[in-house]
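Section 5.1 Outputs to date
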Amino acid sequence: MSIPITSNGGLEMKQKTTMDSKVISNEIKVRNYRKFTFTLLVSALSVLALLATSCGGSDDATSNVAETSSSSETSETEESSSSQSTNEETAEEDTTSQAPEIDEDCSTASEARDDLFPGVMFFSEAQTRCITDIDWGDRCDEETGRLKIPVIGNPECFAPFVGDNGGATAQGVTEDTINIVYWRWQENDFILQYITGPIANDDTNADAEASLRGLIQYYETYYETYGRKVNLIFYEGTGNIADPISARADAVKIAEEYDPFMVWNGPTLTNAFEDELVSRGIACLGCGPSQQVDYYKENDPLSWTFSMSGEQNILMGVEYVTKQLAGKNAEYAGDENYHNQERVFGRLFIESGEASVENNNEFENQLAQNGVEIAETVAYALDPATLQESAASAISKFKAAGVTSILLSSDPIAPRDFTREATAQGYFPEWVHIGSVLADTTVFARTYDQDQWANAFGITTLSVRTNPLKSGAPYRYKWFFGEPAPADDSIAVIDPWPATFYPIIQGIGPDLTYDKWREGLNIADPTERYTTASSFSWGEKGRWPAELEYDFFGNDEVTVFWWDSDAQGLDETDAEGSGMYQYADEGQRYLWGEIPEAEIELFNPATSIDLYDDLPPGQEIPNYEPIQPGG
């Protein structure tokens, strides 16, 4: 028995089923719903998090976070930690005695689950127990047992909670509220502006706050929160996203003044923010750059993220190169002289700290163990002052080494300089994505030298995009409120935090603690596998080698894609233009170990897909009228 997290963010209970990874292709090949691609792993924040390892407040959305007096006394911190532990023990004693109800005369009572968290009940389990007196409320479609929300595979209804929720079950939790701090970068952060410059995004921080508060209202209308509402503190950082001093100071202030249960987001080019928070016993969800697996084990159960770990990216990259590319000719290079030549690999990666170097060394070591040699390795730094010089030097080295295929792990800006320099030097290799971030989005790829990028392909954690006006976070926001989100350009990169948080606490029940968060994720099924959505899981699922589990990282899949310089269509900001990423084999996605030995066909639009304007047949979203906000 398990608690699966649905692909649209709902924790639902159902009988766990297992499938051999090799026989689920019928399910995978169904082209399905996906949130707007420019989401979970595709933002200037999650992007930069990867680079570092390979890298309720006021209803007034524009109001400032209220200032309160601060205290940095060590004794107060220790007292808070002790109080939290006591509260968690007391709350567990109070709630674990609430055994789920079972009708003794029910013919299916023997099929009832024995692992429900106290206070949790959902539609199908109530039917199994022959419980008929639950008022499921306006949010539930009782004909299907699912929430009345416009998402494919909409999650199962959970019963409205009645009773004592345990009150202060954890730090930042009361009978009525859960303190959540959302960290947001400064609007004038010059590093972020440099990275996201090619995207015409005019959303302000006030827009972002208003949109996040709106999303929270949406989720709290439909998801069960056991008598509590999120008390959101929207916090604007005091330094740039790479400044460890201001990041640590922000964390200290957040910990001492706002007493959060959890922090969402953070400065993505320094570990200082997350390090300080977890050292004070505060949980982080995607609030720092992805770090080595040991970091998460040492800080269990406080640090969580959405993206693959560096180690997981290495495994996927090695598998792709060894199964699909090594020992074969460089048939996709721009230089026809390479087409009849066996691939010679070069490695180009962004160096953003010790972890990025260690990860690259491990990547090359694993390739070597599989008989794949790297002829030339070049690391570069994301520095506007030196990037062009780095590009000239790197291209000269690759060209001199006879490299036909560059294995690329980069930020979204550098490929522009490297591809321009390659053209200037008359060098046209294959450009192979191996863990690049945002470089795998159409909006950035259009800024690269198109004569070069016509030869780009590889693997990405992204999936086939869908029209954001017809599905995903932008669509749901407008459906619920009747108007677009104030942060209309970035609503989809704000949504992942509440979209992850609410289904998890719904499945945990009233006894909200960090340990229950961990336990709930561990017994939860992975999200469904679709070609238009990544499958996420945390915990021990058997998807990764034993040493990488318990898994603190969400995304588990990649797909193979290529750049079609002739295609016309919308990028992730809805701008019409030339050039689109195409997803091979109609976007089929792969877990570790599933990439086939048989060649995956590239550069053939007939077997690939770039974007669904309409959701595929059989995957339409259900049609419901929204519950009026505040209703």
